[in-house]
User: What shape does this take?
Amino acid sequence: MPVLEERGGSVCLNRLAACLEHCRRSIRASGAPARLVVLVNNSSDDSVGVAMAWAARQNVALDLVEVELAEGQAHAGAARRLAFDIGRQCVQASGVLMTTDADSRPERDWVRANLRAVAEGAALVCGQIALDAEEAAALPAGFLDAWAVEEKYAQASLELADLLDPDPHNPWPHHGQISGASLAVTARAYDAVGGLPVVPFGEDRAFAARLRAFDLPIRCCRAARVVTSCRLDGRAEGGMAATIRARLIEADLHCDDRLEPALATGFRARLRGRLRRAWGRPAAIDGRLRRLGLDAHGRQEVFRHRHFGAAWASIEALVPALRRVRLERAQLEVELPLLQRLVASARARYGWATTCDSSQQAVPPSREALCS
Assistant: This one.
């Protein structure tokens, strides 16, 4: 079970050493056999020297690979894919691969929590990400407040989806985050989906989408927690630093693309739930697809898929009513009350106890909760 550290660009070297140390402590606390793999790509600093010096001080066996990715491939997706592939060579089919980033610090229970989620049936475990409190405090006033509102909207969206289309493998409450700073995947699942997609950015969500297409269980695990940097000088396209810089520059920037208007959120979740429950009954599915306006060619495209996840991805791509309308941040406060009413209505209809223990109700994240 390797713990993979994906590295891209010039990251403050003390963050790299801290990441390795936190990985070591988490591995040791878990008691599980593990190999620590570090991939250094296109580095302009002494990352290799820092990693090797740390390994010597701690007397830790370290598999370190340094590569210079070609132009056009020097991005997070290609680097993380290579790191995963190297790690895959180190484990048996029953093993687990984990990945984090050089500017992140897995908490003590990270490895153990990931392994526990896998033992409970998860093929992919998405850990919870908290911002580094010291770095967050240096961000401009109001930034984290706006971020907290967005997360509050995201949590309400996730709860509504759980009420209308519950996932037994990812019970509510959960965080809903999918980040390369904390992913754990079984070797069997990694092989089954053909590995991590090689895309410039968003490789973490694209990877989760691959597993969904195969109906493989995904768990968003709060106990698998990682503290990550919210610095502004990162180089990865689409990464945390790039996202924060863009939001500081452009106040009306669109929200996370998983967020959409309240009514659209409810429509998507309700339809997905109904189709999922009808999957395996072609006549029922065909009738719903006709009512959605799909012609014979479109319906044939849907039915060619063995797994519901892949079929649903086709339906989303083919049905005009399911085209996503992304929200601007200014729209969140307008949409949030309606979304909360939809959640309350769904709770009343379907029952809160059907999705989680009432003693463990999810609390929308505050500004402080986003940080360690």
Observations:
- Confidence is low (pLDDT under 50) at residues 3-11, 353-363.
- The first helix runs from residue 13 to 30.
- Residues 262-351 form one domain.
- The CA atoms of residues 303 and 311 lie 7 Å apart.
